[in-house]
Amino acid sequence: MPPVFPMLTVLTMFYYMCLRRRARTATRGEMMNSHRTIEANSQTSPLNAEVVQYAKEVVDFSSHYGSENSMSYTMWNLAGVPNVFPSSGDFTQTAVFRTYGTWWDQCPSAPVPFKRTPPNFQSQDYVELAFEQQVYPTAVHVLETYHPGAVIRILACSANPYSPSPPAEVRWEILWSEKPTKVNASQARQFKPCIKQINFPTNLMRLEVNSSLLDYYAELDAVVLHGTKDKPVLSLKTSLIDMNDLEDDYEEKNGCGMDNLNKKFSSIALREGTSNGYFDKLPYELIQLILNHLTLPDLCRLAQTCKLLNQHCCDPLQYIHLNLQPYWAKLNDTSLEFLQPRCTLVQWLNLSWTGNRGFISVSGFSRFLKVCGSELVRLELSCSHFLNETCLEIISEMCLNLQDLNLSSCDKLPPQAFNHIAKLCGLKRLVLYRTKVEQTALLSVLNFCSELQHLSLGSCVMIEDYDVIASMIGAKCKKLRTLDLWRCKNITENGIAELASGCPLLEELDLGWCPTLQSSTGCFAKLARQLPNLQKLFLTANRSVCDTDIEELACNCTRLRQLDILDEDTGAST
Asked: CB–CB of 564/103 below 8 Å?
């Protein structure tokens, strides 16, 4: 019998790698906090004076509580000097994300999470800030004025947003990261994490947040960037170095991170042994099931061990559900090109947050979908600013089986691009939050996509008459279960009547910040009587809600679990 030791050696090494990764439950931020303090060990000469600056501009973000046409509770409040700090409390002059807590993931409209999401990626929202001067960061201070603790990751970018010419290379570097932690106090604080030193100057920062452990909305007032114009010199006095840091650095230098995803599946020389040990005795399907528990980077690493495992790791069945959002900072056209042969059977694809600043081109995205789009059922493209009308046309032509399309915060898409969505007649979920979809295009979509069950139109400011939209929804979308009309500016009791009579299956309805709805018209009582399946109802900031409305809801909507009647002035809520 041929010896199995070479194969066992490979398996032992891979098993050790997995154990090491499992053991490193602490994030890089925690390791830096406990083992090395770059800030304390860096020295600045008098000629290299520290520069302290507030954000000049908010260049991108994923969501905010406020309106697109005002400053209250919007991300734009993060630009400039503090408006509120050091005061604590709920202030409209702060930046607030759309949600908090776990209830958002428990409502009927919550999508099913993707498998194979790395445990160290827990970001839910982000905001990117531009500063006046490029500096080598020595400190980042976040001024939090209410319910702190949402920020879990801070990144710096090598690209200068004010440069007249595009950079040859764009790099993102994590300065600090940490798992979501519960902060018991709700008072204001100046959050000063210990950041990592980087080898390039920056004036573009990114904060990523996770609000799942918060009891209320987190409010941010300003971000302060400390840095030097010249690269700081580390002092000769060095602190302890953690072996995990060395291992991480080794992986990055040797191309084991997502930096070199395009190299993972290239034609590398792999030995073909005479025996693969116990793997020769395992059914093909069982090996596939085992590998299904690996994250994408681990799958890439394992593919380099031998031809047998390379064959398994490159099997399209391993890529039925593909979540690329955690790798937004590295994913590019080359990555998609090398993934392309393995994604011919992909059904769920998450490209949210990816492709910005030239990482993914229209041609690269189009080539990928032409090969891999025929089986797509779900496509997540939130905050994917590389998208244009051509991309939506390609989606409508190549993804005929698509049922789930998320274009949340794709605010750079031109209005005419949304006309192509009407060709996707099988859509069941459509998210258009913070997009420039116009009334004519949306009416066409509603007319042809009668299978819709989940529809988000929150903060769509280009729609002229929401009563017309509500009437079309009531006439065409009889299967609708959830509807988000957050901050729709002109819906009236007439539109509500059309929705209530035409969509009896509604389980979730968000009418928060709809100022034209008045309880005196009986619209809320009618909702309660005609929509007995309601589980979530948001009437945020509607001061006309009265006791009669609450009594009708209590009597008729026995499945109701989430009710928001928050009065933004008084803070009263239920």
From this structure: no
Q: Which helix (H) or strand (E) holds 404?
A: strand 404-406
What are the backbone dihedrals phi and psi of residue 402, each rounded to the nearest 5 degrees, phi first?
-65, 130
Half-sphere exposure of 266 (CA within 13 A, CB side): 9
Residue environment code for 120-155, b if the CB has 16+ CB neighbours within 10 A, otherwise e: bbbbbbbbbbbbeebbbbbbbbbbbbbbbbbbbbbb
- Closest by CA position to 69, among listed 438, 432, 461: 461
Q: What does the pLDDT look like over 461-515, one tens digit per residue?
A: 999 999 999 999 999 999 999 999 999 989 999 999 999 999 999 999 999 999 9
Q: What is 328-463's CATH number, 3.80.10.10, 3.10.25.10, 3.40.50.300, 3.30.70.1150?
A: 3.80.10.10
- Cα gap 197→136, rounded to integer Å: 8
Q: Which fold has domain 472-573?
A: 3.80.10
Q: How far apart are CA 530 and CA 234, in angstroms?
A: 69
Beta strands at 202-209 and 125-146: parallel, antiparallel or unpaired: antiparallel
- Please classify residue 469 by burial: count the beta carbons closer than 10 Å to its beta carbon, then call 0-12 exposed, 13-18 middle and 19+ buried: buried
Q: What is the CATH number of domain 50-228?
A: 2.60.120.260
